[in-house]
Amino acid sequence: MAEQIEKLARFVADTQWEDIPRPVQQHANLVLLDTIGVILAGSVQPEVRRLHEGLNASAGTGATVFTRGWPITDAGRAALLNGIAARSIELGELHDEVSAQAAVQIVPGLLAVAESSRCTGREILTALVVAYDFAIRVGAATTRRPLAHPNGQASLLGAIAAAARARGLNAAQTSTAVRIGANLVVSAAYSNVVAGATTLNVAGGMSGFAAALAPELAIAGFMAQDNAIEQAMTSLVSDGFDASHLLDELGTRWEITHNHFRLRACCYPIYPALDALEDALAELHPKPEDVERIDVATYKFAAGMCNADPPTYFGGKYSLPHAAAALVANGHLRYESFTETALHNPAIA
User: Residues in the chain with pLDDT < 50?
Assistant: First the structure.
């Protein structure tokens, strides 16, 4: 199976801007802009801002942290902080078929390495397109454990692929970098979300940090075993890896175009119930004070997000009771429906 990873790494290293159809290029630009906006919004979350302040004193030079008042810093630190910010507000785009959260984990590392390497815009977009393919294809081949969140897994490898491309690595070096990355993947539990544990977002930030680190390890001469990715995804952090379709339609089906943008700042599994509630509200036009309760029937995974008293704003994003109440009270589920202020709004609570 390692041969298929090699071919995928060659696709990352060798694909040119001119090889990518114009509509794919345009959509990739939209994904990039959307993700930068998500990073900027996430940078003002209280715990992200405090982390910025704590690490600011030892900042170096090389890459930009997308927040107010930060000096240029080293690529790894910028990628880590931007990755945590990107994950913190649940507004990153999603692939239609594979649970990977690719862009919010790829873009922070890519931007940091591309800035310090002085890449052009076309080089950044090319790296994003091919690395998105890498992340989604590896994610589709992987059987994640039920409790494992996709932060820090297949998309971490995609982030490394993007940074390797931005760093100018050839196919063999790219292969080495992503296989080194198999030793850097992390597993964060989905149970963090109901508990409101924002530490979950650090796993996403680690994708950015690994993106800055792994290509440098490859350049320095560090090696990884040939089947590092297959072993990690089969025996260590996941329950299986089937590469039989890893290369299907490679170079003709561009995975970055098979995505959608989130317009609600909350967890995607509760969207179907919220869709139904929006339809009911549009039909009935109730005032918030007229609503005594909302009964919801949904599938098992979403039904577990039932904490009616989430401990933090982050927990509110995974609380179907809070989201439903905020939708009735505010008429929308944008960013401001999932702040600490919203969490303690008597009309919602």
Answer: 1
